[in-house]
Amino acid sequence: MKFITLVLLLLWGQNSMAAKLIYGKKSANPGELSEKELSPVMTKALVPEESDFEGGFNMWVPYVMPTPYQENAGSCLFMSHTAVAETLVNERRNRLGYPNIDLSERYFMNLSKADIGDNLIDNWITDTIYRLNATKKMYLNRDFPYMKGWYRPIGNGQRVFAQPNEQGAYYGVRANWVVDLDSLAKKPSYDLPTFKRDILFEDPKGNRWNVGTAPKDIVQRVKNALNTKKGPVTVIYNHTGFWHAVMIAGYNDNITNHGCPFVSDYPLQMRERADQIREEANNQSDQDERDRLERKARLFERRAQMVETGFQQNGGCSNKGAFYVRDSINPDPSMPLYDYDPNQTGEEQHLNPSIILREYEWLEQLANHVMHIYVD
Would you say residue 133 has pLDDT above 60? Predict the structure, then answer.
């Protein structure tokens, strides 16, 4: 069996670290009708260099663990919230002299699919962290790993494990959604504290694809929350047409943000995607489907214009200041390989970096839900 050791990279202690762009793909979230038939979009992120941590608020950074590349599982909400749990638990463990632990994103995904903790959640967009309060425990990724396997959809968003090449079966990371909690009966668990969240901003329409609705002081709201030293912040935002979730672990007002690479490219990418959708519409024989795709293309163009206008009205790229973000869609070639399936070879992928940089303008223009999560 192949063995992969997940090592926390204390970024300021890695002399080989250099600012660089890395690339990945953001896929559609399974079951989202509004994202139906959208192809994955290329995404890029900036890995910070050593000096990018000097003078910043980086209290939580040492406790952030790198995550496996989520691929097309649509698991970003649980990746980001597992990151919060890890960060808060690891900070406490370090104070007691214990090392960081790497918690299981798959366990969190299984809780959701098994409806455990539903009674604690009024709005899954903002309240996901409360699901962990239902069990008050979590397992290591080592014991319940984020993996690839054979699975078969059985309807209503449910999946079961399948045999290799079984009729109607698929192989991949969506096997993590198969509820397999009984297999943890003899595995050690780790006690969790009770989590609480404060909503720093919620889109007025609850629209997790919306852009341009965040308050003008959203960056300061996030900084203020982090400065309480109670916990990290999670963000849901429009990632070039898909909704996506990440964790903010800190910020630095003094560093360059390298020309706001995410927001600067956003309008162009959205218009290119609108052209692709319109081309697909032209190839449809069904008029209703053509109309649906045309509406989607116009929506992409409208959001591109909203971000472009808002960005310009705010003075464009300040070129100063960035958040320290933990993401799950940008595998880094300099990180260790993660083994999704010990029974196969060739399916491995590099881990994501522990931290990437996102310009403040990213939050101002694209965020639609922002939550501060901490221990009650």
Answer: yes
Helices (H) and strands (E) in the chain, counts: 8, 15
Of 172, 109, 175, 102, whose CA–CA distance to 143 is shortest? 102
Per-residue pLDDT reduced to its tens digit, 36-95: 768 899 999 999 999 999 999 999 999 999 999 999 999 999 999 999 999 999 999 999
Domain covering 24-143+194-260+317-375 assigned CATH 3.90.70 in the classification: yes
Alpha-carbon gap, residue 87 to 233, rounded angstroms: 11
Say if residues 78 and 107 touch (Cβ distance below 8 Å).
no
Lowest mean per-residue pLDDT among 30-34, 169-173, 201-205, 243-247: 30-34
pLDDT at 19: 64
Domain range list for the chain: 24-143+194-260+317-375
131: CB partners within 8 A, 6+ apart: 108, 111, 112, 116, 117, 118, 120, 121
Angle at 373 between CA 335 and CA 353, to 5 degrees: 10
Would you say 230 and 198 are in contact if contact means Cβ atoms under 8 Å apart? no
